[in-house]
């Protein structure tokens, strides 16, 4: 039921050309509250200023845009340039009793959340979970975990001052109907992009709203999510990403934009029976169809399914591939900031 309601709301946000006039006052109220909150943290003493450089990856829309793959790419780039990054994240879906929580590849996913565990395994760097990113940043600094902080999904967490902001959009969805919550998908108005370092679009920016997005973006880059491999969930066996070409599989996705995952499988020549779940869904064995066909899920979902995985369950792993110029901009900006 929750999945169907979410899908209906997102269709309303992303498929309508304009928000209904009668609902716009609700967006205006949300915008006023968001602006007041941001102005409050702009006052002296209301932000935590880390002695380390802080890079924030996030978005101003609701729904999946590809932030976590971009975070993983950013960590790889920073390590290649001699940095020792630490990922700071909220740990959505986790229920840790004591925060900050240091996440390792063996941490219980129910404590840290799916994205945090996925990033800890993919990136092999310290990952710190705390709803209060500023507290997590201060703790990571005090513990000497690294020399640069990467905040995953923290664009609206203004208590943590930042040196670089990367705002991510989905190319097919853009800014939707252009309205603020709850009438549209925007957490902040498009004018907010002017203070970001760069806007990154995941996929081709064909949505009409990108004309307005480009007007406010100080820098604009494209990225794609490239299928890397098919991994067997139980054994860890690795196969090519198109391992199931010409076959029918059950596609399982409990992410912010499941249609992107299904389209990726279809582009690999796979026939997909789609199974959509709410973002950060807590899976049980009963959720997954068991009729003998292969099951292919996202990396984020897989960390919640390992304890009851069946022999025909696989994971499609993807990696972000932004334009090379983005790396050059990031390194140049970091040198200026430090």
Describe what you observe in this structure.
The chain is of the alpha/beta class and 338 residues long. It has two domains: 2-223 and 322-337, Rossmann fold, CATH 3.40.50; 226-320. Helix content is 31%, strand content 22%. It contains ten helices and 13 strands. It has helices spanning 2-15, 24-41, 67-80, 109-112, 114-123, 133-142, 210-216, 258-267, 299-302, 324-337, and strands spanning 54-58, 85-89, 101-103, 127-129, 148-152, 164-170, 198-202, 220-232, 238-239, 248-253, 271-276, 295-298, 313-322. Strands 1, 2, 3, 4, 5, 6, 7, 8, 9, 10, 11, 12 and 13 form a 13-stranded mixed sheet that branches. Helix 9 (299-302) links the parallel strand 12 (295-298) and strand 13. Helix 3 runs parallel beside helix 5. The longest helix is centred in the N-terminal third of the chain and has 18 residues, at 24-41. The chain is globular. The model has no long low-confidence stretch (mean pLDDT 93).
């Amino acid at each position: 039921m929750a999945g169907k309601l979410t899908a209906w709301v997102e269709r309303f946000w992303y498929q309508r050309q304009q928000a209904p006039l009668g609902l716009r006052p609700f967006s205006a109220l949300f915008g006023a509250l968001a602006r007041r909150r941001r102005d409050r943290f702009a006052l002296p003493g209301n932000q935590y200023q880390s002695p380390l450089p802080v890079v924030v990856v996030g978005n101003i829309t609701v729904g999946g845009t590809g932030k976590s793959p971009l975070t993983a790419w950013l960590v790889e780039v920073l390590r290649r340039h001699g940095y020792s990054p630490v990922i700071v994240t909220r740990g959505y879906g986790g229920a840790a009793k004591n925060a900050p929580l240091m996440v390792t590849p063996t941490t219980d996913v129910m404590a840290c959340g799916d994205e945090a565990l996925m990033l800890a395994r993919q990136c092999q760097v310290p990952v710190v979970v705390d709803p209060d990113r500023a507290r997590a940043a201060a703790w990571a600094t005090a513990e000497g975990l690294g020399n640069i902080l990467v905040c995953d999904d923290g664009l609206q967490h203004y208590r943590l001052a930042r040196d670089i902001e990367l705002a991510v959009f989905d190319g097919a969805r853009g800014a939707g109907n252009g309205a603020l919550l709850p009438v549209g998908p925007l957490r902040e108005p498009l004018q907010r992009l002017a203070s970001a370092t760069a806007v990154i679009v995941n996929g081709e920016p064909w949505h009409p709203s990108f004309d307005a997005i480009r007007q406010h973006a100080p820098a604009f880059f494209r990225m794609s999510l490239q299928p890397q491999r098919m991994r067997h969930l139980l054994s860890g066996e690795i196969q090519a990403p198109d391992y199931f070409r010409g076959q029918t599989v059950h596609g399982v996705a409990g992410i912010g934009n499941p249609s992107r995952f299904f389209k990726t499988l279809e582009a690999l020549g796979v026939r997909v029976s789609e199974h959509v779940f709410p973002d950060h869904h807590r899976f049980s064995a009963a959720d997954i169809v068991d009729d003998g066909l292969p099951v292919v899920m996202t990396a984020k979902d897989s960390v919640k399914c390992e304890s009851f995985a069946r022999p025909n369950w696989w994971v499609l792993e993807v990696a972000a591939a932004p334009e090379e110029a983005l790396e050059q901009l990031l390194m140049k900006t970091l040198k200026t900031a430090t």
